[in-house]
Amino acid sequence: MQVVGPILEIRALRQKLSGTVGFVPTMGFLHEGHLALVKQARMENSAVIVSIYVNLAQFGPREDFRAYPRDLNRDLALLRGEDVDIVFVPSDDEMYPPEFSSWVDVEKVTERLEGASRPGHFRGVATVVAKLFNIVQPSRAYFGQKDAQQVMVIKRVVADLNMGIEIVVVPTVRERDGLAMSSRNIYLGPGERQAATVLFKALTLARQLGRDGEKDAEKIRRQMASLIQTEPLAQIDYVSIADSETLEELSLLDRPALACLAVRIGKTRLIDNLPLE
Ligand code: AMP
What we know:
Elements: E1 2-4, H1 7-16, E2 21-26, H2 32-44, E3 47-52, H3 72-80, E4 86-88, H4 92-95, H5 113-117, H6 121-136, E5 140-144, H7 148-160, E6 166-170, H8 190-195, H9 197-211, H10 217-229, E7 234-243, E8 257-265, E9 268-276
Parallel strand pairs: 1-4, 2-3, 2-5, 3-4, 5-6
Antiparallel strand pairs: 7-8, 8-9
Helix pairs in contact: 6-7, 9-10
């Protein structure tokens, strides 16, 4: 496994690869969720490249960029165990030099949910992913369903800018009690960790109500919110039942829908989602 920083070096290594290249962009502090993406990329491609880069551009001014957990040595050990070919660890200086001025702005799908709660977030995500795609030139790139709106944004970028990269979506990996794995779970104290299970409980409730034939999306949102409010450490940012394709809020469950939520547990903001059949 080669670990590479400079962009010129990764370009040279990439050019020597033949066959398909599977790419997994990450911000590091890897867990089983990230590794599911890597495993699938490994199964489906001749070579696998993983990037580790905590992208300042996607954090708001009052968000956790400085506190975001980092452990490169542990990450590299995990990736060695998955038979990764190249790990790309770019520097801030090369990714965002002082003269940097080109941004990728995706409209519409970014207006709601995470886009509304975190202004500028998807501009940072779309820009860094476009840059990484240009540098790595993968055949396929792997993203988690955990960040469902991010997947939609990336698919838009790839289609709109004619990048010709296949986007593969991997199901959310969860802890035994249903909590979606996330690098941010490390912030949770023991009481908070227990409280955090309320996210998956609310999503499961939505799915069950849908299965039981409830068609009124607002009723489902209200029941999810009531359940979350029983948890004193939880504070709702949003609860959504949206069209799976457009993320527009539904009033009637008459098409494929996604239950999405963002909830603060103490100071930690967690997101999760579950498709409703
Ligand atoms: P991050 O390091 O948080 O930027 O995540 C890198 C990639 O891993 C993104 O495509 C995420 O959607 C994906 N990911 C994060 N957590 C999970 C999870 N629990 N299950 C599946 N994929 C995940």
